[in-house]
Structure formats: C-alpha cells, structure tokens
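Action item from last week, closing it out:
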Amino acid sequence: MGLILNIETSTMVCSVCISRNGELIGIKESIEEKSHAKKLTIFVDELMKENGFSYSDLDAVAISKGPGSYTGLRIGVSTAKGLCYAKNIPLIAINTLQAMAIGIIRKVESKEIIIEHFEDSVLVPMIDAKRMEVYSAFFNSKGEMVRDVKAEIIDEGSYLEILKKQKVIFFGDGSEKIHGVIKHHNAEFIKKINPSAKDMIELSEQMFKIKKFEDVAYFEPFYLKDFIATVPKKNIFK
C-alpha cells in the first residue's frame, strides 16, 4: 500500500504528513519557533487518529535529514527512529534542499507561481545558517542536483559565474536575508518558502519503491557543520 509518515523538522517549521502511494492523505504544520519538542509527537498522533490509521498500518517513516537546525534535526530523527524501531519498519532519509526544490517545481506545474523560462533555470534553495551563511545546493528544473550541498558565506560576488549564464531562482529562509546582497538581472527571489513534509512525498515514495532505506541504528542527520554549544553572554560572569 505504501503508507508513509513524512517528518520535516530541519528549520523552525514543524511539519508532518501522511502519504499513500505518493498522494497526500493529511498534514499538520506549525511555524512557531522551537515548537518541535512539544508538537511533533502530538501532530503524528493526531494525524494517525484523524485519518483512521494505527501505527501498525505504516509501511515506512521518512525523515528530512538536513542540512538545517541541529536541535530540530535531532528531534525529528529521534522520533522517526523510535517509530521505526517500535514497528520494525524502514527509515527513509530525504535531502531537505531537494525536497524544497521539488516543492517549487510542483508550484510551477500547478501554476501557483509563474516563472518565465523556468525550464532553463537553476533552483537554489537556501536554509539560514546564521549571520551571512547559508546551506544551499543547485538543482535543475527536474529536481536533479547539479551542485552539491555547501555551507556558504554570501557576498556581492556570490554566484556571479552562474548568474551570467542563466536565471537563478533563490528561495527559502536563507535567501530572504541575502535579497539585498545579490543584485543581478538573472537573480529571482521567491519569498515565504519553507520546508514542508508534503514536499517530501514524491521523493519518499520513489525511495520506498526501490527500497532505498537507512540503517535505523546508525543513521545520523546531515548537519553539514559541527554543532558548537555556546554560552549566552549574560551568563558568562555567573
């Protein structure tokens, strides 16, 4: 049947959906900051009950693996692993940036957004990595990765080589802070695009069909950068 629970917690968005055979069954989302710990398991439980499923009905759990927030990814992966262990079902890992690119492609196909010369454009989803740094990757209009994921510090010269050749579409919370930095006629910015569990559905279904599963015991999120614990300045002298 292919009943998959999709979990997205890589940014401040807490998003969960259920899909069956590549179709959305139900979704719950919150953009409340730091809500993952208190809302994720509640969303999962509510979705299952509201749609008449038991956890034994699940065929797999898909997790958005990052890059993104260390804390958010840990919470999402821990929840996904717990479900997979408890029900002995496979774990699927989805690249967060690729899912974001698929989301834009679907919006263009449904004409929710109109982008001229979209077929020849490069899609650059961006996740905020603090200060002027972002996590990004390049995708073509088919959702295929054409440049690997990187953590990059953005300045006026960023992406000039590709911008000289073709249109580049920037989106995600990382792109909104650099809107005024990258100024080129081939640069196009789409606002208010966040990762969503519903954008994982196509990829999780593909991986389920070809049985591309993770080792539940050893799987780790794709942090990209090492987590560095910091002490708030106000506490330094206590």
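Closing note: The helical segments are 36-50, 70-87, 96-109, 160-163, 173-176, 201-209.
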